[in-house]
Every structure is written in C-alpha cells, then in structure tokens.
Specification:
Radius of gyration: 19 Å
CATH class of the largest domain: Alpha Beta
Helix content: 40-55%
Number of domains: 2
Bound molecules: acetoacetyl-coenzyme A
Length: about 260
Amino acid sequence: MTYSNIIVTTENRITTIKINREKALNALNEKTIEELHDCVEQLSQSEDTKVVVITGVGKKSFIAGADITMFEGKSPITIRNIILRLQETLNKLEDLPIPVIASINGYCLGGGIELAMACDIRIASNTAIVGQPEIKLGLIPGAGGTQRLTRLVGSGRAKEMIFLGENIDAETAKSFGLVNRVVPAENLEEETLKLASRLAKGPSFALNMAKEAINRGPENSLLDAIRMEGELFALCFAHEDVKEGVNAFLNKRKPNFK
Ligand code: CAA
C-alpha cells in the first residue's frame, strides 16, 4: 500500500510514523485509519523494527481526533464500521510485540489521545493539549477512551475529563499519569529519539515478555496474572539475551543484546 496520509521512515531499527494531515491538525479520516491499519499490520510481521514512534507532522498537533467531517450524513452502521476499524487498528498497535512511543507534539484530542493510550509510553511537548472533547459534539469517546483512560487515570478523573470534555495541559496530564514525560517543545524530537534508541538497544525478547505481562495482566485475577508473569519470566531463559545479560553483570561489563 502506498501511503499519503502517513509518512513512515525507519532508521537504526526505529520506525517513525508521522500523521501527515497538517491542515486538518492531523485528524484521522478513513484513509488515514486504513493506512495506519496497513502499517501496523506490516510492523507486526517485521523483524527489522525494534521500536515504533508515532507523532504528527507540524508543530501544532499530534492528532486532533477523528476527522469530524466524516461524521456528517453517515448512518450509524457506516459509523460503526469506521469506529470498529479504528478500534481494531489501535488494538493491533497495542499488541505489537515491541515498544511503541507516542511523541505528542501538540493537540492530542479524542481519537488522538485514544491512539496515544494504545502506545506504551507517552512523551509530550510542554505545549501539548490533551483531552476527550467528544461530549461537546454530543458523542462519547469511541476508540477505547472510556476504557483505556479509566485504566490509566482512574474512573474519577476519566469521568471528569469525559463528562466535561475540557482539555488539560501537558503538566496536568503528567500529574494524572496520562503522559510519562513532559519536555520543552524544541527538545521533543531529540528526547523521543533518545528514549527510542535506549529501548532499541534493550533485550527485545524480554521487552516483549514484559509488555505481554503488563498488557494481559488486568484481564486476569491477580494470582493468575502473577502466575503468568512467572511463566513469561521462565520463558526469557529460552533466549540468549538472558545469558548475555547475566554474564555481563557477573563480568562487570555492559551487555550487548542481540
Ligand atoms: N476533524 C476535522 N477537522 C479538524 C479537526 C477534526 N477533529 N480538528 C481540527 N480540524 C480542522 C479545522 O476544521 C480547521 O480546518 P479549516 O482550516 O479548513 O477551517 C483546521 O483543522 C484548523 O483547526 P482550527 O481552525 O479549529 O484551529 P484552532 O487552533 O482554532 O483550534 C482545536 C484547534 C482546539 C484542536 C480545534 O480545531 C478543535 O476543537 N478540533 C476538534 C477536536 C475534537 O473535537 N476532537 C474529537 C473528534 S471526535 C473523536 O475523536 C471520536 C473518537 O473517539 C474517535
């Protein structure tokens, strides 16, 4: 598939996806959702990429939500198809076996924060504005917001954000645990790359197992989830990285993971 609404580049095993609809503040229309879906599908089969970064083109917006123009004149059935496709794309993104970073370079609203919450780590510019403003359109979040936001920040804060639809700044989002780090806007790209490079040098199998345990855990009881963690811990010993990590520690040197 040739992309026009996203720009995908890979350098040093870090794949960057830029949403490329600057004039519409990188809102997600059907074509963008399809391109993202295809890209995530390709990444799920790639052995070359170790980390994914998602960001928006331009300085003003990460993603200002679903493209509101596509809501006009559509039947509930068509809307359902679109939203389920977006959900499927974000679920696949969340399930990628490698770390995914949302580099939030501005407005991160509605479907934008929903996409960012399907990523593993969110790093935001100090100028970023985050929110679930759907209620102002007579809507509710439709791409996981009621669920992922609640799990990230708790139901009290999620209800306040979703019921009022008021946006919050990056520092407030950080204090809620909704973004991990806030950096000056001019340093966002550099700080994102530093983080991505560090993760790219990490033991990819153990990162995969850690992500699996963290993502799947809440679907189970605490005891079952801890048991699953033990199984995944043991599975790490099937990979040569654990030999390298332990040997490096014992010989007081830096590990060189494959
Ligand atoms: N969909 C379509 N177009 C959008 C858009 C969106 N979500 N957000 C912004 N745009 C367009 C504007 O219509 C405008 O286009 P024109 O230049 O052709 O008029 C352009 O982007 C620039 O936007 P503004 O002039 O509005 O810029 P601003 O600086 O005054 O305001 C903003 C920025 C506060 C982000 C404002 O654009 C805004 O509130 N956007 C809508 C945000 C929103 O409601 N998002 C949720 C969408 S619903 C959803 O996401 C459902 C879901 O759960 C999946």
